[in-house]
Specification:
The chain is mainly alpha-helical and 189 residues long. It is 77% helix and 0% strand. The protein has helices at residues 7-30, 37-44, 48-54, 58-62, 66-78, 86-101, 106-115, 117-140, 148-167, 171-188.
Length: 189
């Protein structure tokens, strides 16, 4: 059963999205390093404290889907049915993220990330955190009879598959190839 969020939750989500959209527009127009937090807050018509209530840092404004993606990876493990294989469930989540991050208008965002040391560092720390969250879900799953080391390794491979596919000329083919290897590694573990 799907629960419809209440008015307060919808308003919070709308404010968060407005801040993220405003920040991205300003960053792309003027450059990431040229735009300050106060400018983003003013342009989004929110207080700086409101901005920080939704985003922990300036870098987080660029990666606004960070936490939902991390949660979706863990849920791909914990909410799958007993007859649903693990690796294909993870592949679907990664494919959704690749499609989201490769959609129309994504190239300028990737160029901005690639040219900013702060954004590259944040993206790398985000990937490590996602891999650890996924590994934690795998380790905790009683239907996953693998060692903690195997779970951590597979989690990192899954997260790296995203980066490889995102940068590939044919993302689906890259995912097919990467997840074929991930499946083989998982089976061998």
């Amino acid at each position: 059963m799907t629960v419809t969020p209440g008015r307060r939750e919808r308003k919070k989500a709308a404010t968060r999205q407005k801040i993220a959209d405003t920040a991205l527009r300003l960053f792309l127009e003027r450059g990431y390093d040229e735009v300050g937090i106060r400018e983003v807050a003013a342009e989004a018509d929110v207080a700086v404290t409101t901005l920080f209530a939704h985003f922990a840092s300036k870098e987080a404004l660029v990666f606004e889907q960070d936490h939902p993606f991390e949660q979706r990876l863990a849920l791909a493990v914990t909410r799958r049915t007993p007859d649903q294989p693990l690796v294909p469930a993870l592949r679907r989540e990664v494919q959704d993220l690749v499609r989201h991050c490769s959609g129309e208008g994504a190239a300028p965002v990737h160029r901005m990330i690639d040219t900013s040391p702060a954004l590259r560092a944040y993206e790398e720390s985000m990937r490590l955190r996602h891999a650890e969250a996924l590994a934690t879900a795998l380790i905790a799953d009683p239907d996953v009879p693998r060692s903690a080391t195997a779970c951590r390794a597979i989690a990192r491979f899954v997260i790296d598959a995203y980066a490889l596919a995102r940068d590939a000329s044919d993302p689906d083919a890259a995912l097919d190839e990467a997840f074929h290897m991930i499946q083989a590694a998982w089976d061998a573990a």
